[in-house]
Design a protein that fits this description.
It is built from eight helices and eleven strands. By secondary structure, the protein is of the alpha/beta class. The chain folds into two domains: about 120 residues, Rossmann fold (3-Layer(aba) Sandwich), CATH 3.40.50; about 100 residues, Winged helix-like DNA-binding domain superfamily/Winged helix DNA-binding domain (Arc Repressor Mutant, subunit A). A hairpin with a 3-residue loop joins strand 10 and strand 11.
Length: about 230
């Protein structure tokens, strides 16, 4: 079945261009012009990804992202005309998997969509991807991309899982921010290095007993991040 993408933007020409280009690549698309319509459609249908504009009439894209994230891990790419760093960080704070600013190149949009879909599919032919890794009460199933802590399911975004999977399968290895951007964000990511810090902090808030004193994901000051090698 083709992947179904919900396009949420109040600019008809942008939606029209995205729909045409994505459908040419075999995707199925649906659209909403405001936040309330987006939430209504999300509640009544199944989507594989959401392209979500931040500046929407009524309920804005940040709130839409937050409300969707409360009940789903569907990949979300936020799109906005705002390019300030804090806007990007704010979008990621509420669980977006990626962020693009207008005007954008449709080829880059499609590259990012393909990258997220590729990373969210379990690569069953690779032995590492079939592993279930347990560290204390934390269990990471690399095949079905599920994480539990003390047998309680933890909801992670696609990028949060990719980061955790990379770190936990290479325990004790320190990765710089640049290396994490290159390995997890497969395309040529031009974003702020703080994107990694935001994702790491969100991961800690979800899997650590005390996120301010982490036991799993540790910092090597001046170098980067690593997953503890202590059992």
């Amino acid at each position: 079945m083709p992947k179904k993408i919900l396009l949420v933007d109040d600019e008809p020409l942008i939606v029209k261009g995205l729909k045409y280009s994505l459908e040419q690549d075999g995707y199925e698309t649906d659209s909403a012009s405001d936040g309330e319509e987006a939430l209504s459609k999300f509640a009544s249908d199944n989507y594989d990804m959401i392209l979500l504009d931040v500046m929407l009439p009524g309920v804005d894209g940040i709130e839409v992202c937050q409300r969707i994230r409360e009940r789903s891990n569907v990949p979300i790419i936020m799109i906005t005309a705002k390019g300030a760093d804090m806007d990007k960080i704010l979008g990621l704070e509420y669980g977006a998997d990626d962020y693009m600013t207008k005007p954008f190149n449709i080829l880059e949009v499609k590259a990012r969509i393909k990258s997220i879909f590729r990373r969210s599919q379990p690569q069953v032919e690779e032995q590492e991807e079939r592993r279930i890794i347990q560290v204390q009460g934390l269990e990471v199933n690399c095949q079905n991309r599920q994480v539990t802590l003390n047998r309680k399911l933890i909801r992670l975004t696609a990028k949060e899982f990719d980061l955790l999977s990379l770190l936990i399968t290479h325990r004790g290895k320190v990765y710089s921010r640049e290396a994490l951007l290159e390995m997890v964000w497969k395309y040529d990511y031009m974003g702020d290095m703080r994107t990694v810090d935001v994702h790491i902090r969100r991961l800690r808030e979800k899997i650590e007993v005390d996120s301010s004193n982490p036991e799993f994901i540790l910092t090597k000051w001046g170098v980067g991040y690593y997953f503890t090698d202590k059992d």
